[in-house]
From TrEMBL:
Functional description taken from the UniProt entry: Responsible for the 2-O-dephosphorylation of xylose in the glycosaminoglycan-protein linkage region of proteoglycans thereby regulating the amount of mature glycosaminoglycan (GAG) chains. Sulfated glycosaminoglycans (GAGs), including heparan sulfate and chondroitin sulfate, are synthesized on the so-called common GAG-protein linkage region (GlcUAbeta1-3Galbeta1-3Galbeta1-4Xylbeta1-O-Ser) of core proteins, which is formed by the stepwise addition of monosaccharide residues by the respective specific glycosyltransferases.
Protein name: 2-phosphoxylose phosphatase 1
Family of this protein: Belongs to the histidine acid phosphatase family.
Source organism (scientific name): Urocitellus parryii (Arctic ground squirrel)
Biological processes, Gene Ontology terms: chondroitin sulfate proteoglycan biosynthetic process; glycosaminoglycan biosynthetic process; positive regulation of heparan sulfate proteoglycan biosynthetic process
C-alpha cells in the first residue's frame, strides 16, 4: 500500500512538472535562443508560417487552407513594433481582395451554391458586420472616380455572381481593418481625431470585389467612417502602373515565364492523367477542361466546405485537387529558380514601388497628407511586388493578404527615417533585397529609408542584370 501511494505521488508530481513546463513554453516565459537584435535565428531563416504548425513536408491541403484564410481566431501581428524612440509617421497598405466566388465555371457541372448576401447570424461573423451592411446600404452620399461610382458597395446576391466577394471576404477585411486600427490609430495615433480627407489615399481596380474589400477594411479601421472623407481613385491596371504601363521588356519576360509554365506542365504526367480523368467525368476534351481552370472553382468548394462537383460519370475528388494544387506549389518553386518571373516582377512592380517611396520621401520632408494609403488589388498585383522586393519564401498571396510599408522617424535624430515591411503580420524587412545585409553593415535596429529609395531608384535595375539606370530604358532595352 505504501509503495503504491508513493508511486501515485511520484506520478502526480511528474504530471505537474510536465504541465508547468508546457505552460511556461506556451506563455513564452522560457527564453528562446535569440539572434542579434532579439530576432530568433529560426525567424531569420523563414518568413511563413509558424514552423510549429507547418507540416514537415509540403502538404497541398495545408497550403490550400492557408490560401483560404478562413476567419476563426485573432491572428498574431507584428505591425506597429519599433524601438520606443521611433515615431510612426506613415503606413501604406497593399491588399488582395477577400474570398470570392470563382472566376471560371467547370463545364457541365452545377455551380457551387454560395450565398453572397451578408447575414449577421451566419458564419463567419464579425461584430461590425451588421453595422457595415447598414452603413453601405444607405449609399455613399459622395461619388468615387468613374467607373467605381456605379458599383455596388457590398455583395448582395442570393447566388454569388462570378468573381463576387463573399461574406467570408467581407469579414476577412473587417478583421484586417480592426486589427490595423487598434495598432495604428489607437496605439500610435497615426491619424488625429479630426483627420481630414487629404490624409488618406485610396485606390482600387475597377472590380466590385476590390472596391468592397477596401471599404470593409476601412470600415473596420476607422473609428468614425465618414462618407464625406472617403474617396476611392480608380486604377485601370492590376499592376497599378498608372501612366507607366507600356513596358515591352516586361511583356517579354512574361511570355517567357508563361512558356516555362507550359513546359513544366507537359513534364508532369500525373497532372496530365488527372486532367484526363476529370475531363472524362464531365465529358469534355481535356484541353477544354484545362482552359476552364478547374482549380479556381475547386478552391471555392474547398474553402466553403462544399462537395466537389459530380456528374453521372463520377465526381471530382480530393486526390484530383491535391495533384493540381501540388503542381501549383512545384511551379512556384521552379519559378523562383528560373528567375524569369523575377525579371517580370522588377519591371511590373517598379511603378507602384516608386509611388510608395515618393510618398515616404514627402512625409519624411514634413508633409502631413496621405499618411495612410490603401491599395485594394489582386493576387497578380501582390505577387510581383513580393518577388521584386526579394521575398522569395513568401507564399502566393492568400485571400485578404496584406503587405504593409511602415515609415518611422527617429525621435532622437528627427532627420533620420526607417522602414519596415510586413506581410500578413510578419516582419519581413530583413529578408528583402534592400535590407537583407543591414545587420552586417550597421548597428541601427531598423532599416534606413535610404536603402529602399536606393533600391527602387537604382538597384532594381542592377538586380535585373541590366545596364539601364532608369525604368524607361530598362523597359525598352534590346537583347532580353
Amino acid at each position: 500500500m505504501l509503495f503504491r501511494n508513493r508511486f501515485l505521488l511520484l506520478l502526480a508530481l511528474a504530471a505537474l512538472l510536465a504541465f508547468l513546463s508546457l505552460s511556461l513554453q506556451f506563455f513564452h516565459l522560457i527564453p528562446m535562443s535569440a539572434a542579434r537584435n532579439g530576432a530568433s535565428s529560426k525567424s531569420r531563416k523563414r518568413i511563413m508560417p509558424d514552423p510549429v504548425t507547418e507540416p514537415p513536408v509540403t502538404d497541398p491541403v495545408y497550403e490550400a487552407l492557408l490560401y483560404c484564410n478562413i476567419p476563426r481566431v485573432a491572428e498574431r501581428s507584428m505591425e506597429g513594433h519599433a524601438p520606443h524612440h521611433f515615431k510612426l509617421v506613415s503606413v501604406q497598405v497593399l491588399i488582395r481582395h477577400g474570398d470570392r466566388y470563382p472566376l471560371y465555371a467547370i463545364p457541365k457541372t452545377k455551380r457551387p451554391e454560395i450565398d453572397c448576401t451578408l447575414m449577421a447570424n451566419r458564419k463567419p461573423y464579425h461584430p461590425k458586420l451588421e453595422a457595415f451592411v447598414n452603413h453601405m446600404s444607405k449609399g455613399s452620399g459622395s461619388s468615387f472616380e468613374s467607373p467605381l461610382n456605379s458599383m455596388p458597395l457590398y455583395p448582395n446576391h442570393a447566388l454569388c455572381e462570378m468573381g463576387e466577394l463573399t461574406q467570408t471576404g467581407v469579414v476577412q477585411h473587417l478583421q484586417n481593418g480592426q486589427l490595423l486600427g487598434d495598432i495604428y490609430l489607437k496605439k500610435h495615433k497615426l491619424l488625429p481625431s479630426d483627420w481630414s480627407p487629404d490624409q488618406l489615399y485610396l485606390e482600387t481596380t475597377g472590380r466590385s470585389r476590390t472596391l468592397q474589400s477596401g471599404l470593409a477594411l476601412l470600415y473596420g479601421f476607422l473609428p468614425d467612417f465618414d462618407w464625406k472623407k472617403i474617396y476611392f481613385r480608380h486604377q485601370p491596371s492590376v499592376l497599378f502602373c498608372s501612366g507607366n504601363c507600356y513596358c515591352p521588356v516586361r511583356n517579354q519576360y512574361l511570355e517567357k515565364e508563361q512558356r516555362r509554365q507550359y513546359l513544366l506542365r507537359l513534364k508532369n504526367s500525373q497532372l496530365e492523367q488527372t486532367y484526363g480523368e476529370m475531363a472524362k467525368i464531365v465529358n469534355v476534351p481535356t484541353k477544354l477542361l484545362r482552359a476552364a481552370n478547374p482549380i479556381d472553382s475547386m478552391l471555392c468548394h474547398f474553402c466553403h466546405n462544399v462537395s466537389f462537383p459530380c456528374t453521372s460519370s463520377g465526381c471530382f475528388d480530393m486526390e484530383h485537387f491535391k495533384v493540381i494544387k501540388m503542381h501549383q506549389i512545384e511551379d512556384e518553386k521552379e519559378r523562383r529558380k528560373k528567375r524569369l518571373y523575377l525579371g517580370y516582377s522588377l519591371l511590373g512592380a517598379h511603378p507602384i514601388l516608386n509611388q510608395t517611396i515618393d510618398r515616404m520621401q514627402r512625409i519624411a520632408e514634413g508633409r502631413k497628407d496621405e499618411v495612410f494609403a490603401l491599395y485594394s488589388a489582386h493576387d497578380v498585383t501582390l505577387s510581383p511586388v513580393l518577388s521584386a522586393l526579394g521575398l522569395s519564401e513568401a507564399r502566393f498571396p492568400r485571400f485578404a493578404a496584406r503587405l504593409i510599408f511602415e515609415l518611422w522617424q527617429d525621435r532622437e535624430k528627427p532627420s533620420e527615417h526607417s522602414v519596415r515591411i510586413l506581410y500578413n503580420g510578419v516582419d519581413v524587412t530583413f529578408h528583402t533585397f534592400f535590407c537583407q545585409d543591414h545587420h552586417k553593415r550597421s548597428s541601427k535596429p531598423m532599416c534606413p529609408l535610404e536603402n529602399l529609395v536606393r533600391f527602387v531608384k537604382r538597384d532594381m535595375f542592377v538586380t535585373l542584370d541590366s545596364s539601364s539606370t532608369n525604368y524607361h530604358d530598362a523597359c525598352h532595352r534590346e537583347g532580353v
